[in-house]
Amino acid sequence: MKSYDIAVIGGDGTGPEVTREALKVSEAAAKKFGFKLNWHHFDFGGDRYLRTGEVLPDSAVSELRKFRAIYLGAVGHPQVKPGILEKGILLRLRFELEQYINLRPVKLYRAQDCPIKDKGPEHVDFIVVRENNEGLYAGAGGNLFKGTPNEVAVQESINTRRGVDRCLKYAFDVAKKRRNGAAWKGLKSEDVAAGKTSQLTLCGKTNVLTYAFDLWWRGFQEMAPAHKSVKTDYAHVDAICMWFVKNPEWFDVIVTDNMFGDIITDLAAMIQGGLGVAAGGNINPEGTSMFEPMGGSAPKYTGQNVINPLAAINAAGMMLDFLGEAEAGVAIETSVVQIINTKIQSLAAGRMGHSTTEVGDLVAAAL
Ligand code: IPM
Ligand code: MN
User: Fold this and answer.
1) How many A from CA of 215 to the centre of ligand 2?
2) What is the homologous superfamily of the domain 115-126+159-271 according to CATH?
3) pTM of the model
4) What is the DSSP letter of 226?
């Protein structure tokens, strides 16, 4: 029987509660599809930091590197200054483990969960490929004359040819593999006639950020001919925010830099029904990847058993897919859709009509 070792960081706030349900559903999938999951728990997060002063010891990074997958509940603690845990755990692992892709499927499962009038599941179904190691997140820059009236703060966006190209390549591959080559409904008939089956939109700001997005643009143009089945498209980041609300059905796969990706995926999470369902993966295709619900630690709900675990469960589905258990990944998502459509009143915390534990049980049973 195939067996997988997975590192688990439940983290802060409601992180451990949703993680518990994600692991429960993963176990049900393992049983159904005949593989074994060995969970290795790590207690990194705000509580440990407050207790020991340690965020993530160096030894932890080398320890975590041995795993193919990490499952992360949430980081963020009300008693810890913003930035310490985010930079010390999440961003550090993204960088040191070279998880250079942040993958965010955006799929609306039920029309009533979409805040946009007249949009249903047929309109909101795309995937964002966010660069995850560079850009404004790289940490280049500094403060000069700090604390004086002459203070200067510089924060530079780092874009390397290698970093941009590997992100674009990943995005083209995602686009090519989507829908198993069946043409995406958003294509025009002439695109289909030209052999296109999917669309990849580069999201940038070529009209203002003329250095960084010039590099992205050239990389994109140069790579396109090798991917004939993918229709290429471009949108400025501000315009994409507008289209997400007005015409989300225009998008199939979107590729963008780290900062723009951060912003547009929060907007995207809202049109797919909110943080209760939005999941993401920090991917190193050749190394250790890390999967997480998008929703943060939501500390005010801690211990109440009311937080929505579906995003966490979806993150587990993505993880199993990454590990090579694609069938299990699909089955988890199908069960989530089924439970949303038959049992869940609202995707918001405290308004599901069920507790966190019950929702996990329902999805596991549906499997
Ligand atoms: C995300 C989060 C992180 C980010 C924070 C918590 C550092 O917002 O995963 O999108 O900015 O990348
Ligand atoms: Mn974010």
Assistant:
1) 24
2) Isopropylmalate Dehydrogenase (3.40.718.10)
3) 0.97
4) G
